[in-house]
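so the lab meeting is tmrw and i was supposed to have these ready like two days ago... anyway. pasting both below. for each one the top line is the aa sequence and the line under it is the structure tokens. i havent really looked at them closely yet so no promises
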Amino acid sequence: MTSLPDNRVQIAARLALLFCIFFLIACGLGYPVLNRFDPRQTPGLSDVRTYAALVTGTAGLSPEDMRFRRFRVLVPWLARPFYRLARGRFATWDPVMFGLLVADSLFVAATAVLIVVLGSRWLGSSVGLVGALLYLLNFAVPNLRLVGLVDAGEAFFLLALLRSLSELELWALPVIAVLGALTKESFIPFSIMLTSTWWFSTRSDRSLDSSRNHLLPDAACILASWVLSVAAMTGLQRSITGRFVSPLQFGLALHRGGGGHFAVSLHDRNLWYIFLWLLPTAIPNLKRLPNSWLIPVSATCVMAFVLDAYFGGAPTAGSSWGRALFSIAGPVLTLSSALFLLRISSSGQELWVRHPEVGKRQ
């Protein structure tokens, strides 16, 4: 009989193998940035110039960068050793984009592994694997996750939050919150909405669980994650600028939006490319997913709409809706889409699986 430690080792080994496979797939999807085109010169991907400068440590940041992009440091920091490794060694490959591609691919692969873990735990192993592959195939991954942006990191840490909440491993929330805050400032309000909504929406269920009645410790872990994420962002900003800026001042400085931008975002093609097939295939089976996922994710999507209207980023930079919504809801939607595809394939398998007796001479 296999012992529990042995099972854990086997599971860890399989997840490590999956991670390596997903990483290589992600690198292949993002290969064009190495020598086919330069995202830094591509309309709609101007943010990449900032992250490339953070990787190399060069100056030349724009006023917009001075406001907020230079504080999104985690992905560029992770990319820096790979940039140094590639510099002068990989012929035509752009070493800066190589570093960013490796960093983004690590986060994309880790996100895909978490999708497998969540799907296998709650919906079935095949659902988790198909969901991860659907995630990798989405328009957002090769076009917005693997082109030198930092969204891959934010998406991973948001899913890591959801996974920790689902497994009631709330001790991990502060660590995830700090790393997420160093990735992108929008992670902080998203994480606050996600965790607070989860706590309220699952409160009654956890109260009825006599084996685990830890409402106050759970709330303490959640509050600690909020405080530490804000402190991490504030400390980072002070270390870079040399002066203290309160989170309120920083947030107010980002405002430039309005209803006009809200309307224009609806016409952004990136938004529809991401969700054109994902929503129709996901909606029929959403009811089969846990409410502890659906309610927090839905509330966080509403927060994304509010922040996008407040921030009012230029539509030419790509739909803030599409990028943010896929970071928040993409994994859950792909798992629901996997349920849909597996359902229609199993119900109609006799249509395309040859029966053993077919073709035999009568």
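ok protien two:
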Amino acid sequence: MNVPIVRLFALIVVLFGLLIAFTSRWTVFEAQALRDNPDNRRSLLAEQKIRRGTIRSADGQALARSVRDENGVYERRYPTGALFGHPIGYSFTALASRSGYEQSQNDVLTGQSEELTTALESLIGRRREGNDIITTLDSRAQRVATQALGGRRGAVVALDARTGAVKAMASTPGYDPSGLDSAAALRRLNTDEQARPLVNRATFDTFPPGSTFKVVTAAAALDSGRYEVGSQVDAPAQKVVSGVPLSNFGQRDFGTIDLTTALTNSVNTVWAEVGVTVGRTRMQDYMERFGFYDKPELDYPESQILASGVRKRSGLRPVTSGSVDLGRVAIGQGDLQVTPLQMATVAATVANGGVRMKPYLTQRVVDPDGRTVERADPARAERVISRESAQELTTMMKSVVREGTGTAAALTGVEIAGKTGTAEINTSGLNDPWFIGFSDRVAVAVVLDRIQGGQGGEVAAPVAKVVLQALGR
């Protein structure tokens, strides 16, 4: 055996193996990272020649489509303007910038496939085209939600409680993606620190939930067996919680009442005591079951979604931490910060008999030949509370709308369950009014940011009412 030849052969084998390894790294294992690299101009230039797929609402309205110019370059158009600006986002290859659903579904919309398949298509002369997507969004509900917000800072999220489908996702102030035709236009919106028009307040802004969080506290209390609907609790005008006096709205003394009355009238001194009695460990457990402390598994950019929970300067802090005022968290105060998507999920979970579903925006994907290649498969996240607890809580929440703080959300012929909230921002009367609720199938969350003297039952509940009405529930 010729030793030098053997050594040369071994060297060639090693070099060939390294070649395969490195080419596989970029074409297979790290292909997505390479495509997503903002410094990679090749993919951006290539995408200008690709007909990006059309995005449509569930009722067939075009939300984003591509138009080819005389040079063969495709440009994106947004026929509905600012109406779907936040959920759909934008995609401009000339600016090397994307956001929202356009960003998360980029591979689907550009027909991105395996490198070998793409190479084969090039050899046979087939032009690459993107897939069309039909979303779960309802254009009428989106329009009604946006109009009801009336230009005020705020957000609305509506979910199909049984499936998790996002029916509406409105955030105001908004922006028209069609107007982002230059880097200067994008920079101008980015520097508007007061309105923050590019921020999707439904997923990427947090607010103190106020009394809407009492639904979570009630769920933990009932499901844990520590309380029943008829449990009697003292409800004085003021009670010391964690060493600090806590008062009911208007300093009202309710005497001794049951839990339904306490939720109907949103009695702070009751729910703070209930939260403390349930305990830190159990409250943390139920918050996590409802989805707090994790980003929702939504087909939307993870970088544009925030997790809800108790927020300190150091980040999220569990309620098991001794530095967290459990009594005030139990009534939606005490550094608790939530997104509208999270609170819509709370309402949807109760409406769905205690089962939390994963939210989603993609209903159907259609290839260039008109074939449906992907269809939504609603996924269960977990059972949060028992069906019996959910039914009891639903009855309590219906009382809120029938005779309590949420009467402005009542609909003729349909029994609505809900909970109002009014988070006080400062002593000057600025509030974040809330409403969460549901009908037989649709769940909704509404928040308005920094409304002078605004109460949840007066300001947010009417918005929820018209959205539920638009969705036919």
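from a quick look at the 2nd one: The two ends are 84 Å apart (CA to CA). The longest helix spans residues 3-29. will dig more after coffe
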